[in-house]
Design brief:
With about 350 residues, the protein is an alpha/beta fold. It has 2 domains: about 15-250, Aspartate Aminotransferase, domain 2, CATH 3.40.640; about 255-355, Alpha-Beta Complex (Aspartate Aminotransferase, domain 1), CATH 3.90.1150. It has 9 helices and 14 strands. The protein has helices at about 15-25, 45-60, 75-85, 100-105, 220-225, 235-250, 255-275, 305-315, 340-355, and strands at about 5, 65-70, 90-95, 110-120, 140-145, 145, 150, 165, 185, 195-205, 280, 290-295, 315, 330. Strands 2-10-9-8-5-3-4 form a 7-stranded mixed beta sheet, sandwiched between helices. Helix 2 (about 45-60) packs across helix 6 and helix 3 (about 75-85) packs parallel to helix 4. The longest helix is centred in the last third of the chain and has 22 residues, at about 255-275. It is globular and about 60 Å long. The two termini are about 25 Å apart. The mean pLDDT is about 95. The structure holds pyridoxal-5'-phosphate. Pyridoxal-5'-phosphate binds next to helix 3.
């Protein structure tokens, strides 16, 4: 039976990413060695790094003056690295979910943190719109897609202070204007590559302004200067990321992906809204295109386990909602084909007929 992979992360990757990476693990470019057993400083791997950085910049139209870094560890390390490098006195955070809260907590180790707004009182089912960003903040931190709660910022915010964004789960899913951001980071395992890798896009001119000493490995300037090769980078995830970047370019780049993502999300949201058994959990205007959260309607609450089992029997993988929301979550990252969403919609319709 075909499996439809709705996992939230690590999650579905393009088949070509998996196949090409598997090949390179056996024999990298016909050199008779695995990519896992050659020097990261070899000309072969340097070419991988250079192409990955160049394609990353091309696909996102990253302007001059920004560095793209590939670093070990995940997004959670960036929760600390961002304030370590940018927070001198005060930072502002928009609290839109579990990951945003974790980022905010780390920043408090480095200075004053202003939580400009939070939707915690509503279990983060919307993104606050009314708030004031302190003009003297060193930066303003947002989480553009709230993976657990299924809310997403659909526009690039205007911020009076440098804007920093965790884009772990929506990078490359929609066109963004990088020039509006000072720093964008994320873990690779949602839309790009296997776990173990974080990406950072940083405006070079924003670095070097804090007075504290920064440990070498946590200093963005070191990684920018060394081309993400200060130490041994996660070579296999970087190779896999390059395959995904090539796949995205071949499909027509981010505008093409955004169009498909909107169609995919509409297909599932329309069914959630139409089907008498289900309802969405996120505020309609903030609904995520990447993580679609839904629960049973109140009258059908007792059918939750049964639907979960029914969907699993039809090959639906990973649709159980996060424990802090309950119900179901279908993650519909770039690599998720429309056919899989249609298959889930068909399962929902079939289950409705049974009840
Ligand atoms: C998954 C996720 C993280 C955590 O990523 P790790 O790489 O596991 O540290 C952080 N932020 C967001 C928005 C995420 O979706």
């Amino acid at each position: 039976m075909k499996k439809h992979n709705f996992n939230a992360g690590p999650s579905i990757l393009p088949q070509s990413t998996i196949e090409n990476t598997a090949k390179a693990i056996l024999d990298f470019d016909g050199i008779g060695l695995s990519i896992m057993e050659i020097s990261h400083r070899s000309k072969e791997f340097q070419a991988v790094m250079d192409e990955a950085v160049a394609l990353f910049k091309e696909l996102l139209s990253i302007p001059e003056g920004y560095s793209v870094l590939f670093l070990g560890s995940g997004a959670s390390m960036q929760f600390a690295m961002v304030p370590f490098n940018l927070l001198e006195k005060k930072a502002a955070y928009l609290n839109t979910g579990t990951w945003a809260s974790k980022a905010l907590k780390e920043a408090k180790l480095f200075g004053e943190v202003v939580e400009v707004a939070s939707s915690k009182e509503a279990n983060f089912n919307y993104i606050p719109k009314q708030y004031t960003i302190p003009a003297d903040a060193d930066y303003f931190h947002i989480t553009t897609n709230n993976t657990i709660f299924g809310t997403e910022l659909h526009t690039d915010l205007d911020s009076p202070v440098p804007l920093v964004a965790d884009m772990s789960s929506d990078i490359f899913s929609r066109v963004i204007d990088v020039s509006k951001y000072t720093l964008i980071y994320g873990g690779a395992q949602k839309n790009l590559a296997p776990a173990g890798l974080a990406f950072v896009i940083v405006k070079d001119a924003a670095l070097g302004k804090v007075s504290r000493p920064i440990p070498t490995m946590l200093d963005y300037r070191v990684h920018a200067k060394e081309g993400s090769m200060f130490n041994t980078p996660p070579v296999v995830p970087i190779y896999a990321a390059l395959q995904t970047l090539k796949w995205m370019k071949e499909l027509g780049g981010i505008p093409a992906l955004e169009k498909i993502n909107k169609e995919k999300a509409a297909l599932l949201y329309n069914e959630i809204d139409r089907n008498k058994l289900f309802k969405g959990t996120a505020a309609v205007e903030d609904r995520s295109l990447m993580n679609i959260c839904f629960v049973m309607n109140n009258e059908y609450k007792e059918l939750e386990d049964e639907f979960g089992k029914f969907a699993a029997s039809k090959g639906m993988i990973g649709i159980k909602g996060h424990r802090s929301v309950g119900g179901f979550r279908a993650s519909t990252y770039n690599a998720m084909p429309k056919e899989s969403i249609q298959a889930l919609v068909d399962v929902m319709k079939e289950f409705e007929k049974m009840h």
